[in-house]
Amino acid sequence: MDNDDFLGYSPEDKHQLQLERLQNTLNRAFRQVSFHRQRMKAAGIEPGQIESAADLAKLPFLERADFNEHYPYELFAVPLRDIVRIHTAPGTSRNPTVSGYTAQDLGNWRHMTRRALSAASVSPSDILQIAFNPGLANWGRDFKDAAEDMGVSVIPNTWLSTDKQFMVLRDYKTTVLVTSPAFALQLADYMHRMQVGPAALNLHTIIIAGERISDERRKSIEEQAFVTCWLHYGLNEVPGPTIAFECKAHDGLHINEDHFLAEIIDPETIQTLPAGQTGELVLTTLTTRAFPLIRFRTGDKARIIEAPCSCGSPLARIEWFGQRTDDIMKVDGVNIHRQQVKSILEGALPVSAALTNCRVKDDNGRIFLEIFIPMNEEFFSDEIKEIEKLLRKTEDRLREDLGIAVAIRLVEKSNPVNPDDL
Amino acid sequence: MESMLRIRNLKCFYGRIMAVKGVSLSVKQGEIIALIGANGAGKSTLMEAVSGILHSWTGEIIFEGKSLKGMDPPAMVSKGISLVPEGRLIFPPLSVYDNLRLGAYTRLRQRAKEEVEQSMEMVTSLFPILKERFTQPAGTLSGGEQQMLAIGRSLMAKPRLLLLDEPSMGLAPLIVEKIMEVLETLRHKGHTIVLVEQNAQAALEAADRGYVFETGTVVLEGKADELLSDQNVKRAYLGKDYEEFDDG
Fold first, then answer.
1. Residue A5 above 90 pLDDT?
2. Which of B2, B8, B21 has the CB atom closest to A19's CB atom?
3. What is the pLDDT of residues B3-36, one digit of tens each?
4. Fewest beta carbons less than 10 Å away: which of A82, A282, A293, B102?
5. Which 3-state string (H, E, C) describes chain A?
6. Helix (H) or strand (E) holding B12
7. Is A195 exposed, middle or buried (CB count within 10 Å of its CB: 0-12, 13-18, 19+)?
8. Cβ distance B103 to B96 under 8 Å?
9. Would you give the distance in Å from CA A122 to the centre of its chain?
10. Residue from A10, A12, A19, A23 to probe the interface with B (highest B Cβ count within 10 Å)
11. Of A1, A118, A50, A178, nearest to B22 (Cα)?
């Protein structure tokens, strides 16, 4: 286990540390990022006026659209030469989301991920396999770095077919699997169908990240794959995978409160809600150097649990509900904004984006984005092959930009598809 | 462990000028904390507020659970806080011995004569040179010796929290090293130390944690070794990488 001083802090010391770090973050953001400075000035507030976590409510929100507008580096708070890693994730419209990390930032993510893995009883004697889709490759790196740091044997994230993943899982004697709910379900289903017994695999732990999983499905994974599941919460645009994580009590997710300050707001009125109420989770980074987030609206529905956990950790918990409060779809753990899909389509095909529709499709555990496009005159070509070619090219483009599996279906113009009807 | 000193939203004023603009920081029992930053960043002002010299401040300063609001320096000294001021401020015409005894003024008034003798023993064993110079006027000491005297004088008050303002100022590197070693010894003796320094390298090497000040605010806090390896701290305060510092 790490020498994790913060877990021994009294509530008063915890709040003191959070206040110090919040004020430092605001001071740095105000000085170094013109976006934050202008927004604070427009709101008539200076960092010195934030005297408690409750004062956060005086500050404006940061939203995903801001990443698009200030693409690629305008929200960075350090010179580029201090950045040691640059990540890309799907954005809200034309531009992807770019985030940067200093060496200290990566150290912080390693620390948080180690803490989360330790809470799931992962130890140096484990063999940990990472199986994410390419859209979550960023997280794969964070898990790899942290697990290696702990002395765990790591099978890094590689995009393999399901059969190959199973082969590695079995032959390499994997004990811990880090993956999305979809793959965990596929695995459980496969083991059930093949009547694989508990002794056939060494697997004892599945860490589920990227998406909330229902209690029912989780139970079936645990029963069919003979494992214990642990849920992690993270954001894939501004990575990290381990913003909050389950402890052995499996009763809510502990937030890394030494690195993040959490608030819950009403997404309609954007007012802060009192502790215990359900609303949209809003996060402020406390230690991030390169890409600070100030009141970032996650779009995730959650509730803060302040009552102490039976595990004794001083970290407050969130209950994560899985639903969204915005227009984002979760495709195998990756946040996909409808607007981005539409703007890619408009650039690639002679269609009006307003007429297109999409949904997340689960085809026996293979999760992909299914897109419906109405046929129109511009599409007509002498050869059906030409149309096919254009569609396949567009699918490739979407796959590359979004990092997820995609299928485009043409539908009749007079009969546009409403995803709610599907 | 609970914090020994806890400061929240401290704002310090010289007349209408705000020199410290809302600083929060904390010090745990047994820690050495370094406050680093350029001249005029507010570090010394914060020390003046904590030691009771400066009264015009708002916010909270809590020492061992009690507010220090409205207390004057003698009260602070009695509570266990001692300041080693910038520029040492020893009394040059007085002998080294008398300078040291003055540090125990509040205790002598409480007739704790024997305990004061013990402190004198402790200080002279820490700085044997001071014993050799006992009868000399303090003004005749070298810079390094005067700094030892200033620290020794503070220790005579038997503080639990020792505040040092620029102890390395004007001293040769070897003497600075010696002073920093003394701080480590003092920590082992149970003292908690806050150190203000422009010599960020020396201070962070001696400290457990540090706070980086810029124009009256804190912009960074962290473990000393993390701050030593921080690119921004290196550029701004450790005088490294200057030749490449133009890419913005």
1. no
2. B8
3. 999 999 999 999 999 999 999 999 999 999 999 9
4. B102
5. CCCCHHHHCCHHHHHHHHHHHHHHHHHHHHHHCHHHHHHHHHCCCCHHHCCCHHHHHHCCCECHHHHHHCCCCCCCCCCHHHEEEEEEECCCCCCCEEEEEEHHHHHHHHHHHHHHHHHCCCCCCCEEEEECCHHHHHHHHHHHHHHHHHCCEEECCCCCCHHHHHHHHHHCCCCEEEECHHHHHHHHHHHHHCCCCCCCCCCCEEEECCCCCCHHHHHHHHHHHCCEEEEEECCCCCCCCCCEECCCCCCCEEECCCCEEEEEECCCCCCECCCCCEEEEEEEECCCCCCCCCCEEEEEEEEEECCCCCCCCCCCEEEEEEEECCCEEEECCEEEEHHHHHHHHHHHCCCCHHHCEEEEEEECCEEEEEEEEECCHHHCCCCHHHHHHHHHHHHHHHHHHHCCCEEEEEECCCCCCCHHHC
6. strand B3-14
7. exposed
8. no
9. 21
10. A23
11. A50
> Residues near A278 by Cβ (< 8 Å), separated by ≥ 6?
A264, A301, A302, A303, A319, A321
Alpha-carbon span B22 to B84, nearest angstrom:
24
| Inter-chain touch B219–A28, beta carbons under 8 Å | yes
Sort out which chain B residues have CB atoms less than 8 A from A84's CB and list them.
Answer: none
The verdict on B114 touching A (C-beta cutoff 8 Å) is: no
ipTM of the complex: 0.92
d(CA A25, CA B204): 21
Q: Which tens digits make up the pLDDT trace of A227-285?
A: 999 999 999 877 789 999 999 999 999 999 999 999 999 999 999 999 899 999 999 99
Whole-angstrom distance, CA of residue B183 vs CA of residue B206? 8
pLDDT for position A296: 97
Using the Cβ of B240 and the Cβ atoms of chain A, whether some distance falls under 8 Å is answered with: no
* Cβ atoms A153, A306 nearer than 8 A: no
Q: What is the mean pLDDT of residues B209-219?
A: 96
Q: Which amino acid is at B161?
A: L
Dist. CA A348–CA A368, nearest whole Å: 19
Using DSSP, state whether B2 is helix, strand or coil: coil
Alpha-carbon gap, residue B148 to B84, rounded angstroms: 10
Distance from CA of A122 to the nearest CA of B (A): 27
Query: Taking Cα atoms as reference points, which of B131, B133, B130 lies closest to residue B149?
Result: B130
User: Does residue A154 contact residue A148 with C-beta atoms inside 8 Å?
Assistant: yes
What is the C-alpha separation between A349 and A24, in angstroms, rounded? 47
- On the CB side of A301, how many CA atoms lie within 13 Å of its CA? 11
CA distance B189 to chain A (A): 23
Pick from A21, A289, A111: which is nearest to B232 by CA? Answer: A289
- Say if strands A176-179 and A205-208 run parallel, antiparallel, or are unpaired: parallel
Q: What is the 3-state secondary structure (H, E, C) of B195-216?
A: EEECCHHHHHHHCCEEEEEECC
Q: Is the pLDDT of residue A77 over 90?
A: yes
Position A418 scores a pLDDT of 52
From the list B201, B193, B197, the residue with the least C-alpha distance to B224 is: B201
Per-residue model confidence as pLDDT tens digits over B77-101:
999 999 999 989 999 999 999 999 9
Amino acid at B5: L
Cα A266 versus chain centre, distance: 21
Q: B-chain residues within 8 Å CB-CB of A81?
A: 231, 244, 247
